[in-house]
Amino acid sequence: MGTVLVVEDEATVREVVCAYLHRAGLPTHEAADGLVAVRAFPDVRPDLVVLDLMIPGIDGFEVLRRCDLASVSGSRSPAATSTSRGMPRSWVSTTGQRRIVK
C-alpha cells in the first residue's frame, strides 16, 4: 500500500484525516503548510496527496505546480483537494474537478 501525503494547516482536521487513513491501512506523512509539503514530496514520493487548497504560505495550487515539477520520471501523484471556501464555478467546470467543502 502506498503512502498518503496529508497537507492541512488545521491540526484537528489533519489528525482526523490521518486517523481514517491509518484505519484503512494506509501510511501517512503530514505537512502543516505548503512549503513543508513541497520539501517532503521528493523523499515521501506519495501515491496520493490529500491537499487543503487554502493553506498558509504557498497555497495548494502552488503546491500542485511545484510537486508536479518534482515528480520522478514523469509519474504524477493524484491529489484529492479540499477547501473551506467555495471555488469559482468557472474553475470547477474548466478543470473537471468536484468540490467537497469541509
Total number of beta strands = 4
Largest sheet: 4 strands, parallel
> Rough shape?
globular
Provide the spatial order of strands within the biggest beta sheet.
2-1-3-4
- Tell me roughly what share of residues is in helical segments: 40-55%
Give the overall pLDDT as a whole number.
Answer: 81
**Uncertain regions spanning at least 5 consecutive residues:** 89-102
Amount of beta strand: 15-25%
**Structural classification:** alpha/beta
- N-to-C SSE string, H for helix and E for strand: EHEHEHEH
Number of helices: 4
Instruction: Give the end-to-end Cα distance, rounded to a whole number of Å.
Output: 26 Å
Oligomer class: single chain
**Gyration radius, to the nearest Å?**
13 Å
Topology of helices and strands:
Blueprint: E1 4-7, H1 11-23, E2 28-31, H2 34-44, E3 48-52, H3 60-70, E4 79-82, H4 89-95
Parallel strand pairs: 1-2, 1-3, 3-4
